[in-house]
Automatic annotation (TrEMBL):
Transmembrane segments: none
GO annotation, cellular component aspect: cytoplasm; membrane
GO biological process: steroid metabolic process
Name of the top EC class for this enzyme: oxidoreductase
The UniProt record lists the keyword Aminoacyl-tRNA synthetase: no
Record's keyword annotation contains Oxidoreductase: yes
Name of protein: Delta(24)-sterol reductase
Length: 506
């Protein structure tokens, strides 16, 4: 803890300096899974990238104290060595503990525990004036700050330590594949599985309106007898979504559901290779055949860390329709049909999420309109229209549809709300009062972090910015296929060979 405390003192000193000089600043983590562009400047950041250690365990209480930049794969490796696992493990290994808490994160155990922030018991936080405090949902003095920090994207202070709840680990997940022929059948299967206390994990993939699979996982120390465990982390392994589709095709007429054993870590990060199915979009962009041989040859580029690097450096993240949208079960089928009509993007990811708790224990990300019903997170990942204003309109139409259906979007991605629309969803009065109370005005507000230039699509006059000849030429060059993509891959290749920083401006 000595090194941790020394680092926190340095962070607090720099925050105090920014506060005393009224200098706006941002937090730099050293990594990201957000699709938003980085707006950080080196002389106006609080660098917490070295806070990346698991500090201590309480095995009796099943607790662990973790610095915010510990990624999921390192966390699982360390906790499993103590016979424990996080209650929720985000499916992409480079998502960090701090990112999961300050962002909006969930996974296939969220039907039981809710969002990732519900597994955090307390946080150490550097306030905007440099003071260091502990905030907890059990402390009447700080519970307002604790719950508001959850999902507010690091805009209320600098989190430096998190206390997390754990569960007993086991060596395998026994996964059952249940074929479904409609979105409503998917929901019915998920609802039934939620009532089974032996179920530890559940999610689903819809490949079309009439074809999909729900996967139900149970932790176990005993693999299925006579069947080799399936893995998803080696070059020769299948991508999970393709494997699940193959199982669906082979067994959809069988009377008994197909089951297999998967080593626990391989299950938890089953979507890493191919980043769900986003890797398919890369093959499409480069007009490359998509088959077992090309996936094998290009495997080093198909992991989350490398793909997010390439996406940011190419600039193509601004064209990605990458959204997680949580819809109440009662409205989910309507939303899935709407998604098909407007985008034609398949597959879709389905993940049940336990909804809001008591009003005074709601994380910021739950907003004001979410009730107590189970939510279905619907993951939509693909490329949107190339015309920027059409792209903005499509995203705004989806945001309006989500609001109409009493749902909520995750703020890791771009948001296309006007400021008035944004604060109809989230509790502005409570949020701004906490920013004042805890001296957080030097940090960007959450709306400032997630907003984009709407280019007049939401009304009002749109004034096109004038360009120099040089700016026009650069825009034309990078807008010509495939220069941006090639540059992103080249930068990612460099990142594979040498440690590199693709987030901070030089």
């Amino acid at each position: 803890m000595e090194q941790h405390n020394a680092t926190v003192r340095q962070i607090a000193s720099k925050v105090r300096h920014f506060h005393d000089t009224n200098t706006p600043f941002r937090i730099y983590h050293g990594s990201t899974l957000s699709t938003r562009d980085s707006a950080r400047e080196r002389d106006k950041i609080i660098d917490i990238s070295t806070l990346s250690h698991v500090l201590r365990f309480d095995e009796e209480k099943k607790r662990v104290w973790v610095e915010p930049n510990v990624p999921m794969d390192a966390l699982v490796t360390t906790t499993k060595a103590h016979g424990l696992l996080p209650q929720i493990v985000m499916e992409l290994p480079n998502i960090t503990v701090g990112g999961g808490f300050a962002g909006t994160s969930g996974e296939s155990s969220s039907f039981r525990y809710g969002l990732f922030d519900r597994t955090i018991k307390s946080v150490e936080i550097v306030l905007g004036d440099g003071d260091v405090i502990k905030a907890s949902g059990d402390d009447p003095e700080t519970k307002d700050l604790f719950f508001a920090c959850a999902g507010s994207c690091g805009t209320l202070g600098v989190i430096t330590l998190l206390e997390m709840e754990l569960i007993d680990a086991k060596d395998y997940v026994e996964l059952t594949y249940i074929p479904v022929s409609s979105s409503q059948e998917s929901i019915d299967v998920l609802k039934e599985a939620e009532q089974d206390p032996t179920v530890d994990y559940m999610d689903g993939i819809l490949y079309s309106l009439d074809s999909g699979v729900i996967t139900i996982g149970r932790l176990t120390d005993t693999p299925i007898s006579g069947k080799k465990p399936q893995t998803f982390d080696k070059r020769t392994d299948p991508w999970f979504y393709l494997h699940a589709e193959d199982v669906l095709k082979r067994t959809k007429n069988d009377k008994i559901a197909y089951k297999e054993s998967i080593p626990t870590a391989s299950y938890l990060f089953r979507y890493d290779r191919g980043v769900f199915w986003s890797g398919l979009r890369a093959f499409t962009y480069f007009m490359t055949p998509f088959n077992r041989i090309t996936r094998y040859l290009l495997d080093p580029y198909m992991y989350t860390r490398t793909m997010i690097h390439a996406l940011h450096r190419s600039g193509l993240s601004s064209q990605g329709f990458i959204q997680d949208l949580a819809i109440p079960y009662t409205n989910a089928e309507e939303f899935i049909r709407y998604t098909d009509e407007r985008t034609g993007l398949w597959p879709l990811w389905l993940c049940p999420v336990k909804a809001a708790t008591a009003p005074n224990e709601r994380s910021f990300s739950k907003g004001k309109i979410i009730g107590e019903d189970m939510l279905l997170d619907i993951g939509i990942w693909g490329m949107g229209p190339q015309d920027r204003r059409q792209f903005i309109k499509l995203n705004r139409d989806f945001e309006a549809k989500v609001a109409e259906l009493k749902g909520l979007k995750c703020l890791y991605a771009h948001a296309y709300y006007t400021e008035d629309e944004f604060w109809r969803i989230y509790d502005e009065e409570r949020y701004l009062s906490l920013r004042r109370k805890y001296h957080a005005e030097s940090l960007p507000s959450i709306y400032d972090k997630v907003k984009v230039d709407l280019q007049g699509v939401a009304g009002g006059e749109y004034v096109r910015k004038s360009e120099t000849w040089g700016e026009w030429a650069r825009r034309g060059f990078w807008g010509t296929w495939p220069f941006a993509g090639v540059y992103g891959v080249a930068s990612a290749t460099k990142g594979l060979l040498f440690p590199s920083d693709f987030l901070l401006k030089r």
